Amino acid sequence: MSKLTRGLLALSIIIFFQVEASAEYLYKDDIIHNPKFTKNIEVLGSELFEKTGIALKLVMLEELPKKQTLQEYETDLLSEFSQPTIVLMFSQLDKNVNIWVTDPVLYKYFNKKQVLSPVASPVQAFFISVLFARSWDDIKELMSSSGGTILPLLGNKVKGSQLGKYSAAMFNGYLDISMQVADAKDVVLKNGVSKSSEYPLLIVKTLFYGFILYALFLYLRGKFSKRGKNDE
Question: What pTM value is reported for the model?
């Protein structure tokens, strides 16, 4: 190995551990270890805390500590924070994503059910309700809890390393919670995302699921039409 290569490797290691050591809002990371990911979380988290007084911590675990239940880990983790704190937790091997708070009053600043919903959009919720809902209550439940920003991404199948999927999904959820807290506190995050930038994605989703619903309508119409002719 040349001196230049060894020097670059040493510099990379130093920078990596400096980023890891200074991480405050990416509170634990046993999985990603990506300086860019850490920096994005730190920048957004520090701005959110500066403007709202609420700390949003991201915890990325490979698995829960041995001989400790999820509830026990939650209790121990939350005891480490003295300021108002929201914790977004992901445990890879336990296949668990959760959101915890140091004070239940913090739940009024964001919609936990929506963030953790497996349904990505109201259009998708409507499509699912058409296929699977058994009652009006089922439809209302699906529609009210749509808009998930983590589980739909985690559910995607990818080839090769899963790290990109994990980091994208958890940052998406972290951003969603941040924006909701900021909106509830009537502040603007310059490192967040504007509402106007969400509209093009919503239009694409609406068109996509609209085509699926139209295709389903044609399929069902043809099926019942054929059944009606057979009955004659």
Answer: 0.73
Place of tokens 């405050």: 24
Q: How far is CA 207 from the centre of its chain?
A: 23
Tens-place pLDDT, residues 30-80: 999 999 999 999 999 999 999 999 999 999 999 999 989 999 999 999 999
Strand partners, 85: 55
Q: Which two tokens stand for residue 181?
A: 């807290």
Query: Are 167 and 36 in contact, with CB atoms under 8 Å apart?
Result: no
Q: What domains appear along the chain, each with residue ranges and CATH number?
A: 24-119+147-192 (3.10.310.50)
Please choose, from the candidates 33, 102, 97, the residue with its C-alpha nearest in 3D space to the C-alpha of residue 64: 97
Q: If you write DSSP's letter for every residue of 170-232 in order, what string do you get?
A: HHHHHHHHHHHHHHHTT---TTS--GGGGHHHHHHHHHHHHHHHHHHHHHHHHHHHHHHHHH-
